[in-house]
């Protein structure tokens, strides 16, 4: 459960829900218990019309989302305050119809919610698509990083950054999540200056965010770290803590991922500013100019 803090903070979280309709009770239970301020969801596996807007609004959250039949889908939730959508597709491939990227201005931050392609089986077209998508992300992230706005890249990156981020790499060596090309792309992204929040706060810990459904991996804590929250300079200095709500993975009917969160301090000028207009209505259609 979220511990009490003396100073004003914002908790930003990411959660691959692996089917929002099937796991809506799990999501609502987590929102009630942990009360994150901003949430990025991946793998909605639902159309726009099937997104559970009303249930999420009743939980106190406004939302923007982009869905897809049976696969993919991402959403950004905000406690009480309407997110303002910036873009719903990663630039660079206008014909890409996969619902994997959503960017919004929310509670003073620019939040990019992403579900990077898995890439299996590799080699092959799916792995080629993963690497091409990653290249587009790297190009777009460069502008977000240097925009001057507090920005975060948040989501399921489908990359295990190092062998320290997996329980045992031997049986995963051919998997797209561990390929040298995937890891090199992640390193190039970090080399722009982004901070890997979870690893920064837990440099020597075996921290996992995903446990598949096979071979008792959850019960044996045989996990992988593939869900990441990356922060640009405006947010790096505000990072207080980071963690994983592992209890969610142990609940009945759970996703194979657990939520990852970071706690960010709120600048004094923002704490003293007039309260923003709050709403828990349906998603906004408003757009703002891309800060990058």
Instruction: Give the domain tally.
Output: 1
Helix content: 10-25%
**Mass-distribution shape:** globular
By oligomeric state, this entry counts as single chain
Q: Give the distance, in angstroms, between the N- and C-terminal Cα atoms.
A: 36 Å
Strand content: 15-25%
- CATH top level is Alpha Beta
- Enumerate the strands of the largest sheet in spatial order, edge to edge or round the barrel: 3-4-2-1-12-11
Which residues form runs of ≥5 with pLDDT under 50? 272-292
Descriptive overview:
- With 292 residues, this protein is an alpha+beta fold.
- It has a single domain (9-271), classed as Endonuclease/exonuclease/phosphatase (Deoxyribonuclease I, Chain A, 4-Layer Sandwich), CATH 3.60.10.
- The protein is built from seven helices and twelve strands.
- The protein has helices at 24-34, 53-58, 125-145, 180-191, 197-201, 233-236, 268-271, and strands spanning 9-16, 38-42, 61-66, 74-79, 84-87, 101-106, 109-115, 151-156, 195-196, 227-231, 239-244, 260-265.
- It has a six-stranded mixed sheet with strand order 3-4-2-1-12-11. Strands 5-6-7-8-10-9 form a six-stranded mixed sheet.
- Helix 3 runs parallel beside helix 4.
- The protein is globular, with a radius of gyration of 18 Å.
- Mean pLDDT is 91; it is low at 272-292.
- This is Exodeoxyribonuclease III.
- Keywords: Hydrolase, Magnesium, Metal-binding.
- Belongs to the DNA repair enzymes AP/ExoA family.
- InterPro entries: AP_endonuc_1, AP_endonuclease_F1_BS, Endo/exonu/phosph_ase_sf, Endo/exonuclease/phosphatase, ExoIII-like.
- Residues 13-257 form the Endonuclease/exonuclease/phosphatase domain.
């Amino acid at each position: 459960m979220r511990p009490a803090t003396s100073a004003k903070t914002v908790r930003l979280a990411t959660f691959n829900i692996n089917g929002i309709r099937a796991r809506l009770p799990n999501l609502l239970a987590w929102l009630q218990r942990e009360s994150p301020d901003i949430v990025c969801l991946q793998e909605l596996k639902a159309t726009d019309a099937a997104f559970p807007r009303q249930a999420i609004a009743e939980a106190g959250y406004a939302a923007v989302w982009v869905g897809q039949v049976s696969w993919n889908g991402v959403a950004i939730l905000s406690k009480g305050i309407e997110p303002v959508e910036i873009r719903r597709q990663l630039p660079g491939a206008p014909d890409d119809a996969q619902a994997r990227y959503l960017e919004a201005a929310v509670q003073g931050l620019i939040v990019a919610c992403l579900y990077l392609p898995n890439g299996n089986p590799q080699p092959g077209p799916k792995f080629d698509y993963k690497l091409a998508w990653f290249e587009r992300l790297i190009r777009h992230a460069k502008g977000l990083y240097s925009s001057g706005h507090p920005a975060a890249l948040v989501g399921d990156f489908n990359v295990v950054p190092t062998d320290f981020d997996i329980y045992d790499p031997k049986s995963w060596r051919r998997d797209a999540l561990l390929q040298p090309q995937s890891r090199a792309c992640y390193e190039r992204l970090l080399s722009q200056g982004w901070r890997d929040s979870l690893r920064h706060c837990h440099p020597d810990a075996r921290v996992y965010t995903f446990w598949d459904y096979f071979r008792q991996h959850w019960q044996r804590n045989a996990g992988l770290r593939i869900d990441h929250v990356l922060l640009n300079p405006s947010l790096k200095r505000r990072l207080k803590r980071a963690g994983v709500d592992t209890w969610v993975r142990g609940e009945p009917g759970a996703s194979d991922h657990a939520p990852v969160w970071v706690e960010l301090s709120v600048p004094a000028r923002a704490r003293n500013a007039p309260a923003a207009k709050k709403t828990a209505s349906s998603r906004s259609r408003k757009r703002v100019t891309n800060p990058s």
